[in-house]
Known about the structure:
The complex is a heterodimer of chains A (1202) and B (259). Chain A has 1202 residues and is α+β, with helices and mostly antiparallel strands.
Amino acid sequence: xxxxxxxxxxxxxxxxxxxxxxxxxxxxxxxxxxxxxxxxxxxxxxxxxxxxxxxxxxxxxxxxxxxxxxxxxxxxxxxxxxxxxxxxxxxxxxxxxxxxxxxxxxxxxxxxxxxxxxxxxxxxxxxxxxxxxxxxxxxxxxxxxxxxxxxxxxxxxxxxxxxxxxxxxxxxxxxxxxxxxxxxxxxxxxxxxxxxxxxxxxxxxxxxxxxxxxxxxxxxxxxxxxxxxxxxxxxxxxxxxxxxxxxxxxxxxxxxxxxxxxxxxxxxxxxxxxxxxxxxxxxxxxxxxxxxxxxxxxxxxxxxxxxxxxxxxxxxxxxxxxxxxxxxxxxxxxxxxxxxxxxxxxxxxxxxxxxxxxxxxxxxxxxxxxxxxxxxxxxxxxxxxxxxxxxxxxxxxxxxxxxxxxxxxxxxxxxxxxxxxxxxxxxxxxxxxxxxxxxxxxxxxxxxxxxxxxxxxxxxxxxxxxxxxxxxxxxxxxxxxxxxxxxxxxxxxxxxxxxxxxxxxxxxxxxxxxxxxxxxxxxxxxxxxxxxxxxxxxxxxxxxxxxxxxxxxxxxxxxxxxxxxxxxxxxxxxxxxxxxxxxxxxxxxxxxxxxxxxxxxxxxxxxxxxxxxxxxxxxxxxxxxxxxxxxxxxxxxxxxxxxxxxxxxxxxxxxxxxxxxxxxxxxxxxxxxxxxxxxxxxxxxxxxxxxxxxxxxxxxxxxxxxxxxxxxxxxxxxxxxxxxxxxxxxxxxxxxxxxxxxxxxxxxxxxxxxxxxxxxxxxxxxxxxxxxxxxxxxxxxxxxxxxxxxxxxxxxxxxxxxxxxxxxxxxxxxxxxxxxxxxxxxxxxxxxxxxxxxxxxxxxxxxxxxxxxxxxxxxxxxxxxxxxxxxxxxxxxxxxxxxxxxxxxxxxxxxxxxxxxxxxxxxxxxxxxxxxxxxxxxxxxxxxxxxxxxxxxxxxxxxxxxxxxxxxxxxxxxxxxxxxxxxxxxxxxxxxxxxxxxxxxxxxxxxxxxxxxxxxxxxxxxxxxxxxxxxxxxxxxxxxxxxxxxxxxxxxxxxxxxxxxxxxxxxxxxxxxxxxxxxxxxxxxxxxxxxxxxxxxxxxxxxxxxxxxxxxxxxxxxxxxxxxxxxxxxxxxxxxxxxxxxxxxxxxxxxxxxxxxxxxxxxxxxxxxxxxxxxxxxxxxxxxxxxxxxxxxxxxxxxxxxxxxxxxxxxxxxxxxx
Amino acid sequence: xxxxxxxxxxxxxxxxxxxxxxxxxxxxxxxxxxxxxxxxxxxxxxxxxxxxxxxxxxxxxxxxxxxxxxxxxxxxxxxxxxxxxxxxxxxxxxxxxxxxxxxxxxxxxxxxxxxxxxxxxxxxxxxxxxxxxxxxxxxxxxxxxxxxxxxxxxxxxxxxxxxxxxxxxxxxxxxxxxxxxxxxxxxxxxxxxxxxxxxxxxxxxxxxxxxxxxxxxxxxxxxxxxxxxxxxxxxxxxxxxxxxxxxxxxxxxxxxxxx
Lengths: 1202, 259
């Protein structure tokens, strides 16, 4: 025993114990796991929330020093990004200017023309300011941030933004900082507006950049309320010099004192910008996430055969996600701060950790024997997969370790996370997922129990009587167990994958949910990142209405103030008209003097009386202190990005603003006026005034709403087109692939193989030839001609109907009863037989065939049939010899008479209806003329056994009493197949004809009585009833060659199918006896035929199983089996097909053609093929093994498949 | 330092060439014969399949692969562009779609060719690829491929040798994790070599250029990317070839009509 094996055993044993533990105490373990997850995730609370919003940190100006690069010990509350010098210092000079007192002779343009004009002198002042102290002379040129070219894509801004020099931004940039250009500009607003981008823009515009305050607050508009113009001169400094800045501040304050200014000037704010997520970064990110979701989808789709697929899939995803969270939490706990972008590496981490182990565990557990206890199943499943799980994990750890030695910091960090994630994932798999799985399995078992109980209570199931009035179609037989696949409506169609996807979408209302979730997320993102400036808008609204920010100092209530700012419509022409006389009296009025006497009476508006043309009051409020806060948070990044400087993951320091108050006299305003200024249209009314301010918001809202409605409509239409309401009802289904020849299906999953020991029914001495069942009883007939009736539930032999005339044979061993069945000896059996109608002479078989053929000549074209008789029925010579060569006789007693095919020991040819079987009549007819003909076909319904003999005789036996009830000798050609259909019997004959018999009983009451109460063994008709059977219709030459199988199905149509040796399958209407359709699918004989409500399954000598659509006759798909398999078929439920193989039975999913499971019947699978297979009601399968019958209870198998 | 490296490289090369000189002719001849036979059989197979129902299937697979290739090329190109330009969504989109419009179609075509070649060669070698044949694994493979690109675009490596070595290890890991077939390895190497040569030619002739060429006009990690791309495309192609219907085209068509 090598070390490896010992290790393997140890691991396996450990996993086994662990599985037992998990399954025994599910709830405590889940609680423990959740607690540990939460504990490990706790450090995550300290991490900042991911996002793109900038982060601020405030320090005092006075003792400010540039932070060093090295992290210091006493960080305190200092954030970790606050290291090293900032990208830039930003010094803003906030200018508030107003023409005061306001004169009614002034035109609206005057509000901002002269205040803006003062920017040039201010700029001059700032540029020329020189601070001179002992250490040297400093000017702005030396301190400011020198910028180079604009980015190539920004040529249109070249005239406006500074290049090759100081980054100094002010409204003067619109006019290249030249007063002359400003003075000669006829329309300032147009100049400002022409640089605005078209359309809606939510991010920082050029106007914002140059004015440094939001557009609303600049006051540069014809409809300004306060008549105060606000703008900033923004200096971007590359290095910090406190003395220069303070001297500049002092100088400006001295020049333009701000009287009532009480701004705090002792704090500077450092703003750290996160990595910007642009379109370019978003697309790869979204792609990786899409791939991740596809991976998760394809992985969890493989979870199968459990109670709740979705629950387990969710558990798997939760396992992986929480292991990731745990890894991040643990890493932060031990001092490693994540520097990687979490959102970016997350998909890769998930992919590295993977969902494979979880799926392997599930597969392994669900494929353990289902009759075990849940605990043991979990333990077994775990220990089965323990080695591979450990191996995988070791491999992955090795790979990651190799990655760790690449010595690239990012990869190292990734590897560290991955290692911790893998370990925690393993922990969670072992504790969390295993426990969830055990709970799921237990639930499934409970569900099975619940489902099986009523079925067993109602056992045995009601038997449909064979004799039933034709008018009453039989109700669908209630089956005690139902094998319901999870969504039968969809799974019973073998749909194209494309449609299945669409149906899946439709079924789960995925589209709507996605829209809903998407909308919620979108709104969340909007609120979070605030790209539209919603927050600033709200803040502005609030500050505007608050008394603090109210500029109107006249003590007017806000609403009155608003009303009074704008002159009424009537007054406007007057004010423009009065422009001309205005210059005549340029003397500025005293500030507090009311000017309303002229205007108010003229307008006749009562408000105006109290609202004189205001003296624009310049006030400084708290919101001016940090006016940059009202800007978009992309303001600074976009300004810097124009010069290809990124602020991502860096910070800038914003110095306290320098307030500058400018009061301009009306005369100055008039002097700076451009001739065209007076031509401006009069300010429109109040109502229209309000509009432009809020228009953007309305536009956004309207467009968003329209887009949303359009999207919903579009998706709705798509939904309608793709998913008609009656989906799933269409009976036509088509397969697209044949998977039978693959050793494993395309999930890489090979179906499980298990073994059960069947209940063996012994009693026949020779190979079993025919097998029939109706759920309760089981009738079998061996080559010796003996018919045995068994109880299908217990396996007891109830009745033995011996072969007629067997007493003359010398086979003594035939009658040994090896089980507890009733013993019939020849004496008992013979009188029973003697009571029946006298049988025809035994030698009639051969001679009678010829006249039959002759009659056929009458009804058919003779040229066609001239060839058939010798080929089909009578050219036996060579065949007989071949049969003798092929089959050695099984018992000496029968050698002379029976060329018995397929002795139990030798490898059987697996062909039930091979030509060798057809010949028994020949030696009979020739050698022993006094023997009975052989039973070729048998059918059991109620307690009637219909046996078709090689002599062409149809016999009806009582299954319980073993007495012959009726016989019909209308045909002479051997009956090769029989089928019961209510009170009709369809018999197929050797010559290819099809006979329809009607069974009449004179006491249909028995049937009713039987239907009424549920006493199981009550016969449908008592022995006193006279049963007659007559031929109602015969179809000659239904097939070109002998019919080999016959099947009926009564679900929707009264159709019987039959397959012949010519490989054709015909569908017949039982009522009319006409052929519905016929298909050719097999090369060679059709050996077996079953059907469900929607399809017909046939198997042939070519080892091919074909699945046909029943209504259209289109072949859906075919399964190629191994050589020698597939002669026997059975349908357990609508979607479960069982086929016999070499010592095993295989279960197939009929919808998909997948092999689900192979069950070996006992150890002694010595090449014995299952040639006959009957599915009973109680989920049992009866199949023959040579002379034995195997009764296999497969509920365990079936529940697995559920 | 580079000279030293070059020297070493040349020496090792020459010694290897010398030692292999004896076998080379025979080997080359046999290999060439093999390749020729493979090529002729492939061609004949293609010709034969043109007349069969398989063609539609082939075209479908090719289309899917082409789409995947175009999409991946766009996304990965974006990743590379992003490294240099930071904050201009509009500009990036403009450069992405204007500069080299022919690159995504080329990548798509290459993906289609490689993805169809893989299952084809598999079937000709007679060793069908059974290792992890499932869509989840394919998705994982694509994710790792994107991750390799991401790493090459985003991570800051000390020098180019480190970058190339890391990427080579990652690509080999990709092959080992998701493919593990000799044919896959060979084809991947072939793809990488051919694609690098083509890129080299393009760059040499000035059709296309790299911002930071570090090895004879191109980036040295390019072969690794091409190798892993080839393996990924082959993975997708194999999966598609496996899933695509074995049934005839008529049935498929009928299903289409009826559904």
